[in-house]
Amino acid sequence: KGESHVEGEKVENPDTGLYYDEYLRQVIDVLETDKHFREKLQTADIEEIKSGKLSRELDLVSHHVRTRLDELKRQEVARLRMLIKAKMDSVQDTGIDHQALLKQFEHLNHQNPDTFEPKDLDMLIKAVSARYE
Questions:
Q1: pTM for the whole structure
Q2: Is the predicted pLDDT of residue 101 greater than 50, yes or no?
Q3: Per-residue buried b or exposed e for 101-119, using 16+ beta carbons within 10 Å of the residue's own CB
Q4: Is 108 or 42 the better-scoring residue by pLDDT?
Q5: DSSP of 8-67, one letter per residue?
Q6: In which compartments does the protein localize (predicted)?
Q7: 69/72 Cα distance (integer angstroms)
Q8: Radius of gyration over every alpha carbon of the chain, rounded to an integer in angstroms
Q9: pLDDT category, 9, cuts 50, 70, 90?
Q10: Which residue has better confidence, 30 or 94?
Q11: How far apart are the first and last CA of the chain?
């Protein structure tokens, strides 16, 4: 009750324990810079978020936000590729199915590595929800 919050003050969030925690936080931070999306997020209930209804709002965010989300996704795909390469190097097995490895990462659409689409937001929400259920 006695605490006061300064506008724009960053609240330190605890680590989620997810291997894509940093990506999740960055996506949320970027989405919250869009006034329309932030309002939808604040008024949405948990079922709207889990069902993917909120993900459709992504089509209404500003071009700058979409561009930043695309950049974040490309960085995350590059990070995952480095993890796969490190795993391959450690095993030294040339018969590894790259697509099968990528399917392990259910928090983004690996078939479209260049742009952040509503499906990516939906997959990220569902991956986090499944982890915590």
A1: 0.68
A2: yes
A3: bbeebebbbbeeeeebbee
A4: 42
A5: TPPPPPPP---TTHHHHHHHHHHHTTSHHHHHHHHH--HHHHHHTTGGGGGGGS-HHHHH
A6: Cytoplasm; Golgi apparatus; Membrane; Secreted
A7: 5
A8: 17
A9: very low
A10: 30
A11: 31
**What are the tokens at 44?**
């949405």
Task: Answer for the pair 61, 36: CB distance below 8 angstroms, yes or no.
Answer: yes
Q: Which tokens is 6 given?
A: 């300064």
According to DSSP, residue 108 is labeled: S
Q: Measured in whole angstroms, how far is the alpha carbon of residue 7 from the centre of its chain?
A: 25
Residue for token pair 């097995």: 93
Cα dihedral sign, 56-58-61-66 = negative
Compute CA distances 122 → 7, 47, 127, whole Å.
29, 12, 9
Q: What is the mean pLDDT of residues 61-70?
A: 95
Q: Which residue has the tokens 């260049």?
A: 114
Q: How far apart are CA 66 and CA 58, in angstroms?
A: 8
Residue 118 near residue 55 (C-beta atoms within 8 A) = yes
